[in-house]
Design brief:
The protein is an all-alpha fold. Helix content is 76%, strand content 0%.
Length: 88
């Protein structure tokens, strides 16, 4: 895998924190930034994939519409409230 150079602008406070982390880990700031960026990108890719799977599932009518879920949840909550009131 080849490396590419990118440039970013960051707040001074963020850069100071990156520098402190790099020093504590005996690593370069570049290493800390790349590691953080990799983790962020992986997490976002996972999240987006999950959203795409959910959209595909709903489009193929494998999911439960939001409105139905909310009705069921409301009914369950009402049942719990009534049961709790009867326990008093």
């Amino acid at each position: 895998m080849t490396n590419q150079t990118i440039t970013i602008r960051a707040e001074s406070e963020t850069v100071e924190k990156i520098s402190a982390i790099a020093k504590a880990m005996d690593r370069s700031r570049n290493w800390v930034i790349e590691d953080a960026l990799k983790q962020y990108v992986e997490q976002q890719a996972w999240f987006i994939e999950g959203i795409q799977q959910a959209k595909t599932s709903l489009a193929s009518e494998k999911g439960i519409p939001h409105e139905e879920v909310m009705v069921e949840i409301s009914e369950l909550i009402d049942e719990r409230i009534k049961a709790h009131e009867n326990d008093k």
